[in-house]
Amino acid sequence: MHTIQSVAEKTGLTPDVIRIWERRYNVVAPERTPSNQRLYSDDDIERLNLLRRVTEQGRRISAIANLTNEELKDITDTLRPQSRPLTNSNLDVQQSISDAIEAITELDPIQLERILGQAFISLGSVGFMMSFIAPLMDQVGDLWRTGAVRTCQEHFSSAHVRSFLGRYMLESNTDTKGPRLIAATLPGQLHELGATMSAVVAAQIGWNVIYLGAAVPLEEILFSAECKDARAIGISLGYPMDDPKIPLMLEELVQGLPKKCQLLVGGSSTARYSGMLSRLGALEITDLEHLSQTLDSLR
Question: For residues 197 and 57, what is the distance between their CA atoms, to the nearest angstrom?
């Protein structure tokens, strides 16, 4: 029998991807030790390897999860080999980002989906968002500002990345008994990628995430936290970075927090408000790894 870490090493899948596929799609059913640790068989490893090989060729896990191993083998036998198979050991992140930008400029949703899926499987959720999605979207933004990428191409990239992350958030967000997190951006804050990425991380570590999206009125954020007995509210601050109303909105949020509910604030412009957040008792989140650690401490 094999631990999940051993299975990750043998399959090239990250532990969080294995858990998602197991929890959402029942692709394998590992045994459990008395301490609730997962133990996988050789047959489980064979099946996960087959699923990885097929998904690397662009097939959605939801479309193949119920296939037998023989059916998966038939698919792998008929698939055309890719010039650069992407696995945990040989993913070229920079080349994959370049490939994604090419797919964006070509407005090619199928190719972009394939690249995103391969990177997620290879890097895991946090690595995917910090090492792939964040630099990819930064580069797209820079290209848009210089005129090298058109507005329709920038919107295409944002829409597809949000959709991709949203699916994984829903696939992970299955623990109804987990502590609740309300995730949103403040009024006037229209860029929600940071909030979406935070929601994915929270859901994958067992939080029950209620994702409200962008530019949510304060009273609606607080209402959601109150009626759902939320343990935390997560706010992402991005663009515009110099909105003079943000300090007042943060103060109003803190004043209206339900009991035992903690305000978490992250995003590209959060450092501007470090002193204020400390004074208000809100927690400043520096990156997704820090978010994961903070949420673990709040359980």
Answer: 25
